Each structure stands twice: as C-alpha cells, then as structure tokens.
Automatic annotation (TrEMBL):
Organism from which the protein derives: Marinibaculum pumilum
Cofactor entry: Mg(2+)
CDD domains documented for this protein: NUDIX_Hydrolase
Residue span, Nudix hydrolase domain: 14-149
Keywords: Hydrolase
Entry keyword annotation includes Hydrolase: yes
Domain of life (superkingdom): Bacteria
Protein name, UniProt field: NUDIX domain-containing protein
Length: 163
C-alpha cells in the first residue's frame, strides 16, 4: 500500500452508525487495534478502538457484543455506555451518523490470549502514547481523550482545586 493510501484510496467511503469499545486495563493502558492497510476502509493503518458498523435490526449494545466477538474472539464480561459522537453528513446528502462508545470489560486483558479477527495487531498503549505518539483514528482519539480526562471534565473534587 502506498504511503498515501489513506488520502488516495479510490473506493468510496460509506458512513454508517457504529459502535466502539473502550477497553482500559488495570494498569491504565488501553487495548487498541492497528487497522488493516487496505483501501476502502476508514483510516487504514491507524490505531483505533475495536468496533464497527451497526447492522440492520441491531441495537448499539448488540452490535458492540458482536464486534468484540468478531474482532477479539471473546464475549465482553460487561459493557456500559460512555458517550456518543454524532457526525453530520448533510454535505454529502446523507443523514447524521452516531458512533456510540462503551466501556468494556473483557474476560482477559492479556493481548496474547485474544484472537485477532480483524486488523493487523492488538496492543496495549498508555494514555500518553495514544495522545502524543501514535497515529490514532481522530474520532477515537477524541473519545479516548475524554475517557482519560473524565474526572477532570466532571470537575471531581480531587481535581477541582488543581485548576
């Protein structure tokens, strides 16, 4: 794939409602997927969260469980809604498309025990690496930034006096 596959891909990109899994390990790192480097997908060769499009008839929660199973080979132990980003595609004659983010607990957090079903790699990364060093899908980077800074954004008592 060329160095410009992300920009030069000839295939159309089709926006769809989607879900993503925020998997934070006990040590504070997050599990990310290195996306395939192929044309026709959003952000090839970028690190991103596990997840994908919501299929017809699925709820976001059902899509999340299916995507985690397909991409990591495990059933989530639990998941809770975190946030939604909504993208307005009116410029292309399309509707708005949501991307729902869920906090997910897996039965294992050891990447070597996961069966990668999509993408090139799975790895755990520190918040600093995610926000400063890696090439991360921009909307996932924003959701991760909000998750990492959740307490500061809420104005928790421990952080309120630090401002």
């Amino acid at each position: 794939m060329s160095d410009h596959a992300f920009v030069d891909a000839p295939l159309p990109l089709v926006p769809r409602p989607a879900v993503a899994a925020l998997v934070r390990l006990a040590d504070g790192r997050y599990l990310l997927q290195l996306r395939d480097d192929i044309p026709g997908i959003w952000y090839p060769d970028h690190w991103g969260l596990f997840g994908g499009a919501i299929e017809a008839g699925e709820t976001p929660e059902q899509a999340l469980v299916r995507e985690v199973r397909e991409e990591l080979g495990v059933e989530p132990l639990s998941h809770g809604y975190f946030m939604r980003l909504t993208f307005d595609f009116a410029f292309a004659g399309l509707e708005t498309m949501p991307r729902d983010y869920f906090e997910v607990t897996l039965p294992t957090t050891d990447p070597s025990e996961l069966v990668l079903g999509e993408g090139r790699a799975v790895a755990a990364h520190t918040p600093q690496a995610i926000l400063q060093d890696l090439r991360v899908v921009p909307y996932d980077a924003f959701a991760l930034f909000l998750h990492i800074n959740n307490a500061k954004i809420k104005g928790d008592a421990d952080h309120a006096h630090a401002r």
